[in-house]
Amino acid sequence: MLRMFRAIGLFAAAALGVAASPASAAGDLLVAPTRVILDGSRGTEVVLNNIGSEPATYRISLEIKRMTAAGGLDEIAEADVNAAERAALDIISFNPRRVRLLPNQPQVIRVGARLPEGLPPGEYRAHMLFRAVPDAAAEAAPAPETARASSGGVSIALTPIYGITIPVIVRVGDLDAAAKIGDARVADTRDGPAFEFDLARTGSRSVYGDIEVTRPGVSEPLLLARGIAVYPEIGSRTVSLRVPPEVAAALKGPVRIRYSEDREVGGATIDQADRVVK
Fold first, then answer.
1. Are the C-beta atoms of residues 143 and 158 closer than 8 Å to each other?
2. In what order do the strands lie in the sheet containing 5-8?
């Protein structure tokens, strides 16, 4: 029997006061939760943990990202942000902004929102960036002899800088949203086969949830994917989930696609559609 395939999305479940979520890791940094939602009435916390064997320093900042029709996130220069994005940068507060963590030492980052009078209803979002700061001693150390350039004895040492971003969403006013599943297909991408479908959003806020693909009459799902979002700056996107070839073959034919809220907030169905996948 073909085993169910699980795909982990780029976005995880909501934060304290809304829902718990899995952690995200890059390099030796572990961050939890990986999605924060604030309504302005109270703050929350994000926990960092150094899972490496050496002390590490991390700088925390905010940046603006916009979702594309392909589901990616483009970083936007601060000079090019619109009014709602500027408001998000202004109202989201956090502390501390720089931490040094010993191995296996957690650190709480306090996150909140300061809502000015007259702020229009809507969803305001920025992405919190946690970036490793290279150790000064490591930067000053000479590069190995084998890394020296052949002319002039100049050496270049490359130090990887790891970073994680999580969305911080502030919701103001009575907002709603709905989503509609469109056409589905199995596609050949440069990274291998993928299960793809169109996902449209309407309303005044983002939608976020999990995808389950089942075969009529078969109890075990063919595919599960968590953390699928459509942000307010776009009306629809293509969801593309990489799958092994044997799963791609099994997905062809009649399937039922269910898009549901995260299980931590009840798992209610957002939309469900029967499709014939080719």
1. no
2. 5-8, 223-230, 207-214, 253-260, 269-277
Token pair belonging to 206: 């983002």
- Rounded distance between C-alpha atoms, residue 160 and residue 142, angstroms: 16
How buried is residue 81: exposed, middle or buried, by Cβ count under 10 Å (0-12/13-18/19+)?
A: middle
Beta strands 223-230 and 269-277 are: unpaired
Chain centroid, CA 75 distance in Å: 13
Distance CA 175, CA 171 (A): 8
Predicted model pTM: 0.82
Q: How high is the mean pLDDT of the chain?
A: 85
Q: What percent of the chain has pLDDT over 70?
A: 81
Query: How far is Cα 119 from Cα 116, in angstroms, rounded to an integer?
Result: 6
Q: Of 164, 128, 126, give the one whose Cα is nearest residue 31.
A: 164
Closest C-alpha to 93, from 108, 109, 82: 109
For the chain, strand residue ranges (E) read 5-8, 24-26, 29-32, 36-38, 44-50, 56-67, 73-76, 92-95, 98-101, 106-113, 122-133, 163-172, 177-189, 192-203, 207-214, 223-230, 236-242, 253-260, 269-277
Residue that the structure tokens 């269910």 belong to: 258
Structure tokens that stand for 160 in this block = 């990887």
